[in-house]
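INFO worker-7 received task bundle
INFO bundle size: 2
INFO processing item 0
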Amino acid sequence: MLSEGFALGRQLRRWWAEHNVYPIVVAESGQWDFLLSMAQACMGIAILPAPLLDQLNLPSAVIPKPLPASELDWAVAHVWGRHRYISHAARAWLASCGAVHD
């Protein structure tokens, strides 16, 4: 599973603790390809963000199963330094997300 440094890993641990679930975690990593390889080798499961899986060409041996959205909150933010230059490309990206506040 994703390591503590990732929001998804922290959320899963919090959810498990709240629901008295004690999974046996045999590997933690920030490398999604390693986790996916472990699952593909039938060494367990990998819990990874759906947007990442949507971008991959998964082999037929890998079967993604979505977790119920109501069980996890996924807060995403755009972060940049106050009074720092924001490139035109970054401004275009933020504008497309509706997040530009001057």
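INFO item 0 finished
INFO processing item 1
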Amino acid sequence: MGIGNRGPDGVASAAPWCTGNMRTMILDANTDALPLADEDFDRLDRLLADLGSDDAMIVEELDGFLAALACAPEPVTASDYLPVVFGRDTPSGQAPADPARDAALSSLVRRHADCLAAALQADAFVPVLGYDEQGRPDGSAWAVGFLRAVEMAPESWEAMLEEKDFGDVLDAIEALAATLDDEPGARAPSRREREALIDRMIGDVSDIHEFFRPFRQAGTTPRAMRVQTVRRDQPKTGRNDLCPCGSGRKYKVCCGAG
């Protein structure tokens, strides 16, 4: 299965966007790096396979994972996400270390993280998907990678899903991820259905990125913003009001005496 960006004509191509002038919460991405070319993606694919771990990501899964991290308001660094990419985030997934290989992998992943975040910022996001021999896109592993990043900060994503206009924004991604299930009787989507899910997924990711934009710009999260709003909305205790500590005395002669 080949890999590549899904361009307007469905042909795989290298990512066209990469810049450091943006607000991204992937804090240590390579902001001065060039976008990955086809040969870079091939090398990334080989290096991930060389990890020899069933828990390590493939390129398509990695792209979805980084896309969700770039959308979310929580800041992350390489020490947060590289163990997940390399399959070293669980005791059962300890791929052996190789300093030279790991350094090369880290550099490629961080380059791609920056370019992907820049593409989202420029409203030019195109996912890196796997394609079969007939040129048909898959999208399942991409969706799994995206949802793995969602699980790293569930509170912000739950806050988004609680919003009326965003309650179904993960439906297409979850439907694509579910196509990897081998449950008896499960029906695989047709080519047209899969491509429709991918098209919807691309639009949904752009909407997600836009939803979290003010939180990224403010350096906060929906939960933190909600707590701050609740605190601001609480009425101020007057000096002649009863003290909120429950003493029965007026605030000005109790906790407000200072």
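INFO item 1 finished
INFO post-check item 1: Strands lie at 2-6, 12-13, 128-131.
INFO post-check item 1: The radius of gyration is 23 Å.
INFO worker-7 idle
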